[in-house]
Hints:
This protein is mostly helical. Helix content is about 85%, strand content about 0%. The chain has helices at about 15-30, 30-45, 50-85, 90-115, 115-125, 130-145, 145-160, 165-185, 190-215, 230-265, 265-305, 305-335, 335-340, 350-360, 365-380, 385-410, 410-435. The model has no long low-confidence stretch (mean pLDDT about 90).
Amino acid sequence: MQKANVNLLEDPIRKLFYKYLVPSISATLVTSIYILADTLMIGRGVGPIGIAALNLLLPLFSLFFGTGMLFGVGGGVLLSICKGRNDERSAQEYYTAALICTTIMSVFYLAAGHIFFDPVTKFLGRNETMDIYVEEYGRALVTGAPAFLFSAFFQAFVRNDKAPKISMIAVISGGITNVILDYIFIFPMKMGMAGGAIASVIGALVTLLILLTHLFSSHSTLKIVRHVNWRKAGEVITNGLASFLLEMCSGVATFLFNRQLLAYVGDLGVVVYGIISNSALIVASISNGISQAVQPIIAVNFGGGKKERLKETRRLGQRAIGLSGLVFCGIGLLFPALVTQAFVKPTEEILTMSIPAVRIYFAAFLVMGFNVLYSTWFQSVMQPGYSLLICLMRGMILNSLFVFVLPLFFGVTGIWAAMPAAEFLTLGLCLVLFRRESKTV
């Protein structure tokens, strides 16, 4: 059980960083764990078309988890800042407002997801080849939307309530449950795509139930209040929008890449991108985990006006991000075939396309983590506009531009190069914004 005597304003920064690092990375790996387990099992138990169908539905995963983070991280940052200022009443108002918003969106996604399932999945790229696979997986996924939203929501608030280990235990438990059930449902029980989706939903429920135990702990400070200034809900959304877009980046990129690959090389391109996008989810989750490890420390010390502690926290985050980027980029450059073989039994045709694709795409991992870290930094020091701009540039604007423009000159190679180009240009923007802000923070 996480001890309650953690002092984010006084304890050594290095000690705090490592206390939060592993639990935070474990917590943010939740999306990757579910999708990765499904991809591995579906790739072996259903086949490449199953991976293509799953890849088309990834934007829904991003939407559900992203919405949970919208209210969870948005409210959690504000809660931490209020605690740094010893304003407990406002902290609980932010928590209550965020909880109500999450409940409303959970009901909305559950209802709208089933009512508009066919037009939404057709818009995402569903075709006759993968129709039955999308139907089986997607219906179960939509039914589990509330579990995904609330697991992401409570991860953020429990972490900001000085209990990162509970988040870690919850996510690991849910992930293990998902992997075990994936195997049982897809292989011995032969439930196919539906089995993979049901396993993910059950895993999310296990994570959520463990997170909820914190609310009944004597260490919990998360309390629902009766009267809330509803302007605080607007502040939660404004501050959490960057986290939402950070999660949605992968969903938007997946959608755009899928559409372009279907146009240029057909279903095979979607299969290869399904392999790459799952690898990217892991890297993004680890980068986000490092960033979320520093987020409560930054937010509380910003609220307490301790600038030197802010700088030390940022430097530790940058070192961890730089190391992880080098490792993942190196794996892609040196072992592209192994990355492919981890997901499917590749044909010669798949390997011919995937090896250069992995090498080009993985170059983005050198700098992607820094963009995530700077976005979290600005969010935690009450500069949500800068954080939002970073997310829009890397996840929406530059990605959309390059994925359509570069193929006109370089063919399918231009599609794989779109992500590295977007990430490197976004890093330049981050440095400009940081230098401007460093005069005041």
